[in-house]
């Protein structure tokens, strides 16, 4: 009797486990439609996508253990996975992302990254996937625009479409992504302005927008982002002056505004801020004096102010900085004696090259 009970119990458990793990036919059909618009000729990652149970041993697919629904698509073309090691190469894939994936309405992760040849557009229906947390399509040839309704994705923490051919503007709705922590749009063809209410993205810690065609000014609201550690707007066409409020941000540690059309002067708050340790304002039209506000808590692994219209002298207070790793003041209109002191001991002449009349170590004596 006891044995029978135990047997019945295990049998029930087995039945429950297997229903939980088996893939709903509709999810399986959506995955097969997704696969049918892709060609991956070298590794054969899709060879594992056979049989009825898409939750079991389908390469890159995992399911939610409680609902049994497909939760993650994780396909990376750069990987240490044995399938890549064995083939001795990184991944290459052509084709496009089928809108059929939007039928996977419990999807939390969509990673189709670094396949180099993937083209087509981001299906606009991804903005209707309520559980989506990670959208990572870096390193393909995806064109078209970021879906206008992307801001619907209230759980999205990572939006990475870097290194593609995305055009159009940053959608206004992006500021509604209240969970967004990591935004990477680098190296695309995105134009237009950064939304003025960008500072609504309260969870944002990295905003990487470099190498696009962005215009307009740096929104002052960015300074409200209390978790923002890394802001990279370099190599765009951003104009106007640098909001002084950026120097009051709590955790900002890397600020790269290089290669833009920025004018005005350097806010002293940016140089006296003790958290910013990489500051790149190179290749702009910044003018005026370098504020003489360095102090014992100034710590810069890189401070690049080269290729601007700075004049006056190298600030004396720089010699009281705790650390200056890489300094570049070249190609400005600075003049006068370079201060002496510990941060200057290891600097080379190239840090000061092509100014109007600088002198003293490491240049010729005054
Ligand atoms: C600063 O930005 C400029 C322009 O984008 C770039 O050429 C330079 O290498 C950067 N400097 C450092 C120290 O990374």
From TrEMBL:
Residues 1-22 form the signal peptide. Keywords: Glycoprotein, Leucine-rich repeat, Membrane, Repeat, Signal, Transmembrane, Transmembrane helix. Residues 119-204 form the Disease resistance R13L4/SHOC-2-like LRR domain. It is found in: Membrane. It holds the Pfam family LRR_8. It comes from Liquidambar formosana. SMART domains: LRR_TYP. Its main location: membrane. Residues 25-64 form the Leucine-rich repeat-containing N-terminal plant-type domain. This is Leucine-rich repeat-containing N-terminal plant-type domain-containing protein. GO terms for cellular component: membrane. It comes from the Eukaryota. SUPFAM superfamilies: L domain-like. InterPro entries: DNA_repair-toleration, Leu-rich_rpt, Leu-rich_rpt_typical-subtyp, LRR_dom_sf, LRR_N_plant-typ, LRR_R13L4/SHOC2-like.
């Amino acid at each position: 009797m006891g044995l029978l009970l135990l047997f019945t119990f295990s049998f029930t458990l087995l039945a429950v486990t297997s229903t939980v793990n088996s893939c709903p036919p509709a999810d399986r059909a959506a995955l097969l439609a997704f696969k049918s618009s892709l060609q991956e000729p070298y590794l054969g990652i899709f060879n594992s996508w056979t049989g009825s149970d898409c939750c079991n041993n389908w390469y890159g697919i995992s399911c939610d253990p409680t609902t049994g629904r497909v939760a993650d698509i994780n396909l990376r073309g750069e990987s240490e996975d044995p399938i890549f090691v064995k083939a001795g190469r990184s991944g290459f894939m052509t084709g496009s992302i089928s809108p059929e994936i939007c039928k996977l309405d419990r999807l939390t992760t969509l990673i189709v990254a670094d396949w180099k040849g993937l083209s087509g557009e981001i299906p606009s229906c991804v903005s209707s996937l309520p559980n989506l947390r990670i959208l990572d399509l870096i390193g393909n040839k995806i064109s078209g625009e970021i879906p206008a309704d992307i801001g619907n994705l209230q759980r999205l923490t990572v939006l990475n479409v870097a290194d593609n051919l995305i055009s159009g503007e940053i959608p206004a709705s992006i500021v509604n992504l209240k969970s967004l922590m990591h935004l990477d749009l680098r190296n695309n063809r995105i134009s237009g302005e950064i939304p003025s209410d960008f500072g609504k993205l309260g969870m944002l810690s990295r905003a990487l927008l470099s190498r696009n065609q962005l215009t307009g000014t740096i929104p002052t609201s960015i300074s409200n982002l209390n978790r923002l550690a890394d802001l990279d707007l370099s190599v765009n066409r951003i104009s106007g002056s640098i909001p002084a409020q950026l120097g009051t941000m709590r955790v900002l540690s890397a600020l790269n505004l290089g290669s833009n059309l920025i004018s005005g002067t350097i806010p002293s708050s940016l140089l006296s801020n003790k958290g910013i340790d990489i500051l790149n304002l190179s290749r702009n039209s910044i003018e005026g004096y370098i504020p003489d506000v360095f102090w014992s808590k100034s710590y810069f692994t890189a401070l690049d102010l080269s290729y601007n219209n700075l004049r006056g002298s190298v600030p004396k207070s720089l010699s009281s900085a705790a650390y200056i790793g890489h300094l570049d003041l070249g190609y400005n209109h600075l003049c006068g004696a370079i201060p002496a002191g510990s941060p200057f001991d290891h600097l080379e002449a190239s840090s000061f090259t092509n100014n109007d009349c600088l002198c003293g170590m490491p240049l010729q004596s005054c």
